[in-house]
């Protein structure tokens, strides 16, 4: 599966992938996977509907590709290397043979609870092996997994469960995160008060505390696994059968359940993993993301296991027991590839080198970053102090919607350049668009980033709302997928992602839509109106600034109100969406049609008020002056 070995092979493959995409992906799919039936057609597509179908007619099961086919040669190889939160607890090496057994048992437990192909199963677990195993167990029997990040609140969990009608929920008695324990089960119990569709809850034991179990609904997982058969035949899936749903924030409305299907996602996640991380069989690969996000789906679980890799899963946080933890893990397990987010790099860089230098990082070969633009300073710190200027840095740009990495350097083929995601991966055809919707040709240009041609792992729809899928991604530009990001292309044709051009704000690498946060704030009885914008933050990349108008502007207890507002946000979304700054204002700047001018608020929050543009056309230009005067 490893073909991009140098610039020549990249250039040749890229050319082929664009000139004849069908032949290109046909060859990769044939050579590297096991199929139960071949496809009749590689690709069928029409972005105006939109309809995208890859490998139509083929049948397969992705878990046979992730696990079964490695057993004969590599049964004793470690598939998942689990590093617990507490460094004094032993790590656990789960071999491919163990993984096979545990996934099969788990799949049989799901079946015994009535789960069938096509049913939706919600997974709400901390980063423990059961999370990866649950995901694979769903895939084994064709159930569609919907993993919800365990930092989300009860309300956020309930709305995701209900949106796709999950029948079963998998959770645990709790989880460890640094010095804290998280009481997951009580969050689940609150969420389920609003989820009539959940028939059963499977509960893994992790923190061994007393929790309440609802009789007839909640079941301890362990005894069920122990009595389950270790053989579960893999369900035959069609290429375009859904594999999973994963929610991501939109600029408006509720989160979107992105639907990924089986064959295309498999081919692309596997092929990108191998080539972008230059994975070799003896390597130990570590991605620090949570499986609750797309990065964890594609590059902790599926991509690595499809390649028969050893993938490290870390339960804890970079700061526990101290900020040297990541580097101690790299040394302990001799990690070869290390993939993390710019926000983590910035937080670690701030701690100084005392926490880096004690550790032997010589096993590292490739470093990666994902989730937001990486600033130049963080890039150099990563390169100098972690990679010791010997490890290529792959700055990988992609999205929940794209399923796999889209723009990234490829080690050995071409070098990275600070702040640049550089060149499109093979098969990816980016385009920059201008305000009028025309493509901007040539180099040294900037515009809105679109992709002009389908790739195998693109999301096929939004669960239950194909119209929204069409409107969000395929309506802004003719026959193009619109990413929501801005980008520039330099004189060498290399891409630099400049950030979101919509109302999505990326805080510590997490996508947050402004609308649901504003909805949560507006629930406060004293709030009349609110607007959220992002502003630059040293560690988080962006942080949240809330402008809030109260119904009674004389309300004096501002400190208490701020606490209550953040509590509401935690309740509705989760602590990740809490506001860093709250400014109470007498009004918000609005256009004559009543639309809040976020552009102005963004500039004020970013302390960039030298050029606010023309504000004379606003309904209430005077308010801008007041907001500026009182800004935080
Ligand atoms: C941003 C994460 C700059 C971008 C895989 C995108 C990046 C959003 C990069 C998707 C990068 C991701 N450089 N920006 N290397 N990677 N982004 O869905 O704005 O959580 O649209 O997927 O993160 O975030 P998501």
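^ structure tokens above, recovered residues below v
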């Amino acid at each position: 599966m490893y073909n991009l070995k140098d610039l020549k092979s990249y250039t040749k493959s890229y050319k082929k992938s664009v000139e004849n995409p069908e032949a290109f992906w046909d060859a990769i799919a044939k050579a590297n996977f096991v199929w139960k039936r071949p496809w009749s057609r590689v690709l069928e597509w029409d972005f105006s509907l939109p309809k995208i179908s890859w490998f139509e007619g083929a049948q397969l099961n992705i878990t046979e590709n992730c696990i079964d086919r490695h057993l004969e040669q590599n049964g004793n190889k470690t598939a998942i290397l689990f590093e617990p939160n507490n460094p004094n607890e032993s790590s656990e090496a789960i071999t491919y043979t163990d993984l096979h057994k545990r996934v099969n048992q788990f799949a049989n437990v799901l079946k015994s609870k009535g789960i069938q192909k096509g049913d939706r199963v919600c997974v709400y677990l901390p980063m423990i092996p059961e999370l990866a195993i649950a995901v694979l167990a769903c895939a084994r029997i064709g159930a569609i997994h919907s993993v919800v990040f365990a930092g989300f609140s009860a309300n956020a969990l309930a709305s995701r469960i209900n949106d796709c009608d999950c029948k079963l929920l998998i959770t645990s008695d709790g989880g460890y995160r640094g010095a804290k324990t998280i009481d997951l089960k009580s969050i689940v119990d609150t969420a389920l008060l609003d989820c009539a569709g959940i028939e059963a809850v499977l509960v893994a034991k992790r923190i061994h505390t007393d929790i309440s179990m609802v009789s007839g609904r909640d079941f301890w997982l362990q005894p069920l696994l122990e009595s389950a058969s270790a053989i579960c035949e893999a369900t035959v899936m069609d290429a375009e059968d859904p594999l999973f749903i994963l929610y991501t924030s939109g600029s408006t409305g509720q989160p979107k359940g992105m639907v990924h299907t089986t064959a295309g996602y498999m081919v692309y996640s596997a092929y990108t993993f191998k080539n972008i991380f230059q994975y070799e069989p003896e390597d130990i690969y570590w991605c620090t993301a949570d499986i609750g996000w797309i990065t964890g789906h594609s590059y902790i679980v599926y991509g690595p296991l499809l390649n028969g890799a050893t993938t490290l899963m870390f339960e804890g946080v970079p700061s526990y027991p101290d900020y040297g933890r990541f580097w101690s893990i790299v040394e302990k397990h001799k990690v070869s590839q290390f993939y993390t987010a710019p926000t983590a790099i910035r937080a670690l860089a701030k701690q100084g080198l005392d926490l880096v230098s004690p550790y032997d990082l010589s096993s590292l070969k490739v470093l990666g970053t994902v989730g937001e633009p990486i600033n130049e300073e963080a890039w150099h710190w990563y390169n100098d102090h972690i990679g010791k200027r010997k490890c290529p840095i792959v700055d990988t740009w992609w999205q929940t919607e794209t399923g796999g990495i889209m723009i990234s350097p490829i080690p050995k083929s071409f070098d990275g350049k600070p702040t640049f995601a550089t060149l499109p991966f093979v098969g990816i055809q980016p385009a920059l668009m201008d305000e009028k919707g025309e493509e901007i040709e040539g180099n040294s240009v900037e515009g809105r980033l679109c992709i002009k041609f389908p790739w195998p792992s693109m999301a096929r729809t939004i669960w239950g709302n194909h119209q929204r899928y069409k409107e969000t991604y395929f309506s802004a530009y003719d026959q193009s997928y619109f990413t929501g990001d801005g980008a520039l292309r330099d004189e060498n044709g290399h891409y630099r992602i400049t950030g979101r051009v919509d109302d999505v704000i990326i805080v510590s690498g997490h996508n947050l839509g402004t609308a649901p946060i504003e909805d949560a704030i507006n629930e406060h009885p004293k709030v009349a109106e609110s607007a959220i914008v992002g502003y630059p933050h040293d560690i988080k990349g962006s942080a949240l600034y809330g402008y809030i108008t109260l119904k009674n502007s004389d309300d004096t207890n501002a400190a208490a109100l701020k606490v209550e507002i953040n509590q509401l946000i935690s309740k509705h979304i989760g602590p990740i969406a809490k506001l860093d700054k709250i400014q109470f204002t007498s009004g918000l700047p609005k256009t004559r049609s009543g639309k809040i001018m976020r552009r102005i608020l963004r500039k004020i929050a970013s302390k960039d008020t030298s050029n606010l543009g023309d504000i004379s056309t606003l309904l209430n230009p005077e308010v801008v002056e007041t907001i500026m005067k009182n800004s935080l």
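The CA atoms of residues 306 and 482 lie 29 Å apart.
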